[in-house]
Specification:
It is built from 7 helices and 13 strands. It has helices at about 45-60, 75-80, 90-100, 120-135, 145-155, 180-195, 245-255; strands at about 1-10, 15-25, 30-40, 65-70, 105-110, 170-175, 195-200, 205-210, 215-220, 235-240, 260, 280-285, 290. A hairpin with a 6-residue loop joins strand 2 (about 15-25) and strand 3.
């Protein structure tokens, strides 16, 4: 599905709202749309809020769909694509929420000029107008009834009845390192390339949020100093889904500039078996990561 999103703030920060919609990729018809006043926030917060709403709309229609997200915000597109770092704490939380809605591997981001994002822009302005007037946003008269129905489904799902928490999934992985700065340059960089978003940071470490669970890298006084060896009892390596075979190859080449070397080069890319396409990488401390295609 195609989603389009926009957000605006009159004053930046000021009165703000977002617009979000889902479009049929074959016909271009709008399947669902939503707009909401979000109070007095910055333009960037409004933009991210629009993206979150658009992903929720698409997920409510088809939880297994692949998504092309189109926005005229260069910042959001580059940050969510993993090409720009997310330094602001509010942006980190919003990006993490967006990545938790849909598996990041099923979402691609595309920047479009403002003139091609008119429907989402219209919705965000409708939301700001409604907020200024002190009334809730309502779909235009004559708007697609299916869109209104999908929005109603999403509204009902926003406060679901309590359900049992899922079990059997990793909550987080914590990796202690000798040198956090070095680990951040290699492993932290790679985490962001495969879809994780930097979440929290402190003097001796940081965490990166994924679609499910998060990963912590930490150096501290309790770390027993000594060289790391993946062959000792304990964690041997981390393996991440990294997209297509071409995506794996591109990422492996780029990783060489960030402290990683290719392992098992004579058997690459089938070191794990003839049916298994992957790149095995090792950083300067000896930590191993596997990038899996498919």
């Amino acid at each position: 599905m195609i989603v389009e999103a926009d957000g605006g703030s009159r004053g930046n920060p000021g009165i703000a709202g977002y617009g979000a919609l889902v479009r049929d990729p074959d016909t271009g018809r709008i399947l669902a749309e939503k707009a909401e006043y979000v109070g007095r926030v910055s333009n960037n917060v409004a933009e991210y809020s629009g993206l979150i709403a658009a992903l929720e709309l698409a997920h409510s229609i088809d939880p297994d769909c692949w998504i092309l997200a189109k926005m005229d915000s260069k910042l959001v597109v580059e940050q969510m694509s993993g090409r720009w770092k997310i330094k602001h704490a509010d942006m980190q939380k919003l990006a993490a929420k967006a990545r938790s809605i849909v598996n990041p591997q099923r979402v691609k981001y595309q920047w479009i000029p403002r003139e091609l994002n008119k429907d989402a822009d219209r919705l965000s302005n409708e939301a700001m107008d409604a907020g200024t007037a002190g009334v809730p946003w309502k779909p235009r008269a004559g708007a697609d009834t299916k869109a209104a129905a999908a929005a109603a489904v999403l509204e009902a799902a926003s406060s679901p009845a309590p359900a049992a928490a899922p079990t059997g999934r990793l909550h987080h992985t914590e990796i202690w390192v000798n040198d956090f700065a070095a680990a951040e340059k290699s492993l932290g960089w790679l985490l962001e390339r495969v879809g994780y978003v930097r979440k929290d940071e402190w003097d001796s470490g940081a965490s990166w949020q994924g679609a499910e669970g998060y990963i912590v890298l930490e150096e501290g006084p309790d770390v027993e100093r000594g060289p790391y060896s993946r062959k000792r009892a304990g964690l041997n390596h981390l393996a991440f889904r990294a997209g297509s075979e071409a995506d794996v190859e591109l990422l492996a080449r780029r990783a060489a500039s960030h402290g990683w070397t290719l392992m098992f080069a004579d058997r690459h890319p089938h070191a794990g078996g003839a049916e298994h396409y992957a790149a095995y990488l090792e950083n300067e401390e000896g930590f191993e990561v596997e990038l899996v295609a498919g």
